[in-house]
Write a structure and sequence with these properties.
This protein is an all-alpha fold. The protein contains 6 helices and no strands.
Length: about 240
Amino acid sequence: SLAKQAEAQRDLEVKRAQFLEVTKRQQAQADKAYDIQTNIMQQQVVAEQVKVQQVEKEQQVKVQEAEIARREKELIATVLKQAEIERQRIETLAAAEKQRLMAEAEGHASAIRQQGEAEAEIIFKKGEAEAKAMNVKAEAYQEYNQAAVIDKLFTNMPEVVKALASPLANVDKITIVSTGNGDASGMNKITGDITKMAAQVPALFETLSGMSMSELFAKVRTIGDKGPKPPDALPPSSKGAGAGK
C-alpha cells in the first residue's frame, strides 16, 4: 500500500540520515584524530629537531673547546719555544762574554808578565853593564901609574876646592878691616884662609879613602914601569900565591 511505501521510504530516509550522521561523526572523529596525530607528529618532529640542534650545539661547543685547547697549546708551545730561544741566546752571549773577559784577562796578565820580564831584563842588562863598566874601570885603575894618578887628582882638584869654598859664594860683600897686625888681618887673612882650605884637600882625601896620598903613590907603578904591580897592589889571592912560591 501507499502508506507502507511511505513509511518504508520514511524509515529509509531516517536510516540514511542516521548513517550520514554516523558517517559524518566518524569522519569528524577521523579528521580530528588525523589532526591530533598530525600535531603529535609535528611535535615529535620539532622535538627531534630541537634534539638535533642541541646535539649540534654541543658538538659545536666541543669543537670550540677543542680549538681553544689547541690554540692554548700552540700559544704555550710558541711562548716556550721563544723562551728557550731567548735562554739559548742569553747563554750564548754569556759564554761569549766569559770568553772575552778570560781572553782580556789573559792578555792583560800576559802584557803585565811581558812588561815585568822586560823590566827585569832591563834591570839585569843595566846591572850587567854597570858591573862590566866597574870591571873595566877597575882594570883601568890597576893600570894607572903615578903620572895618571897625579893627573886625575889635579884634574879634579879645582872641583874639590870649589866645593870647599862654596860657602863663600853666598857672601855678596866683604868688608876688610886692617888692624896693622900684618898677616893676621885684612886681605892677608882672607887669602890665608883660602890657602888653608886648599891645603886640607890631602887630608880630606885620606879621610874619604882611608889611604894617604903617599900610600897611594907607593901602590901604583912609577912612570915607565912595565913590571908587575907592587905586592900591596895585588889581590889577596895573588899575595898568597906569591908567598907560597
